[in-house]
Amino acid sequence: MRVVIVGSAHDAAAYGCDLFLGQLHDKPTSVFGLATGSTPLALYQALIDAHRNQGISFAQVTTFNLDEYVGLAGDHSQSYRHFMQRNLFDCIDVAPENTHVPNGMAENAELACAEYEAQIMNAGGIDLQLLGVGRNGHIGFNEPSSSLVSRTRVKTLTEGTIADNARFFADGEYQPSLSLTMGIGTIMDARRVLLIATGDSKADAMRAAIEGPVSAACPASILQMHADAIVVMDEAAAAKL
Ligand code: GLP
């Protein structure tokens, strides 16, 4: 695990953007694993800027998102599909059919998860997987106690995660308590993993992930076992190391 501490959230996004653009340069047909949440937004904006200002093309890229809420259709304003369209896909030249987000409306969720795994495999596996981290150390929606070898499946969200994400939902709006998420084993299969953590609310999780034991109690700690994992933090997220 390579640990990189930078001065600010802006610097963390710039570091991540360089990694993505380097990967794209080396392999224009790269398969990217993508994440939602507020952390990746600055990185996505940097990729959009690279597309608009430097002519960087994503036309041959394939993407797979980590997770989606069960019960929200892709056009729901709080779905992760909608988040990705608004914050990245609609602003670059990625082919719509090459973007994948788990289907939160699937009638047979178990089958949809198995198909998602097969799609990742058929695409040749993920070259670079982007991760944020929850305050409890979750990655994707793999909450503490998730199996460290889990695959894409339905997961219950913890009360803390539901509370953390409530800020994105309007008062009284339905907020799901179930998700479809890539498993920890799925994430570990990516050839390279980049986790970005910014802000002091992530400091405890990052101490557990980097200095604690590898444990299902802190899902992000599994990255200690990955051959090519890079963890980029701002000083606030790294404050308790
Ligand atoms: C959600 C997502 C995670 C993300 C986390 C942290 O739970 N499923 O993938 O890492 O939020 O979000 P934020 O970056 O907003 O702190």
Structural write-up:
This protein is of the alpha/beta class and 241 residues long. Helices cover 31% and strands 17% of the residues. It has one domain (2-234): Rossmann fold, CATH 3.40.50.1360. It is built from seven helices and ten strands. It has a seven-stranded parallel sheet, sandwiched between helices. Strands 4-8-7 form a three-stranded antiparallel sheet. Helix 1 (9-26) crosses helix 2 (41-54). The radius of gyration is 17 Å and the shape is globular. Residues 35-39, 66-67, 132-134, 140-141, 161, 165 line the site of 2-amino-2-deoxy-6-O-phosphono-alpha-D-glucopyranose.
Compile the SSE list and pairings.
Elements: E1 2-6, H1 9-26, E2 31-34, H2 41-54, E3 62-65, E4 67-69, H3 80-87, E5 99-100, H4 109-122, E6 128-131, E7 153-156, H5 159-165, E8 178-181, H6 184-188, E9 192-197, H7 203-211, E10 229-234
Parallel strand pairs: 1-10, 2-3, 2-6, 3-5, 6-9, 9-10
Antiparallel strand pairs: 4-8, 7-8
Helix pairs in contact: 1-2
The protein binds 2-amino-2-deoxy-6-O-phosphono-alpha-D-glucopyranose.
